[in-house]
Amino acid sequence: MSRKPPASPSADHRMRGFEPAFGLMKDAVRTAGESRGFAVARLLTHWAEVAGEDMARKTRPVKIGYGKGGMGATLTLLVKATEAPMVQMALPVLKERVNSVYGYAAISHIHLTQTAATGFAEGQAEFTPAPKAAKVPDPATQAKAQAVAEGVADPSLRSALEQLAQNILTRPRS
């Protein structure tokens, strides 16, 4: 008896393996974007590439509103009040870059909405934690760790073993 060759796996079966993280959220991002008028989600997800790094630090797209006439939507951007004059001067270039994503002149106006200098989210303050102080290793512990890794010829492996020994010797006992 001859055996039949195995059938090739279906597309559904192949997708059960590793899937990029954005693939899991793609539908949710599209739905949320379309509710705000963003027919092209790339405008939201790749704003730094579309607007440029400098402009992306100053602005954030909020929504796209379509007028009664049909053509010519209005893109609303959130911008810090201190940056608004500079962004206003760069609007023609920004409009060209945004329209290049759509492939036609979808955006006819860009509206700036100014916000506080602390950030884009309501009531959110900037917070930068203090840097952690470097721990000075105990000389006795360091000597024990060097003694553990003493017979290893490879310097990088010896260094890694010494670091591991120090971590184990200084670990708090519970």
List the helices and strands and how they pair.
Layout: H1 11-14, H2 21-35, H3 42-45, H4 47-51, H5 53-58, E1 59-66, E2 73-80, H6 84-89, H7 91-102, E3 107-115, H8 139-148, H9 155-170
Parallel strand pairs: 2-3
Antiparallel strand pairs: 1-2
Class of secondary structure makeup: alpha+beta
Order of helices and strands: HHHHHEEHHEHH
Radius of gyration: 28 Å
The chain-level mean pLDDT equals: 77
State which percent range the strand residues make up.
Answer: 5-15%
What percent of the residues sit in helical stretches (DSSP H or I)? 40-55%
Task: Please explain how this structure is put together.
- This protein has helices spanning 11-14, 21-35, 42-45, 47-51, 53-58, 84-89, 91-102, 139-148, 155-170, and strands at 59-66, 73-80, 107-115.
- It has 174 residues and is an alpha+beta fold.
- It has a three-stranded mixed beta sheet with strand order 1-2-3.
- α8 crosses α9 (155-170).
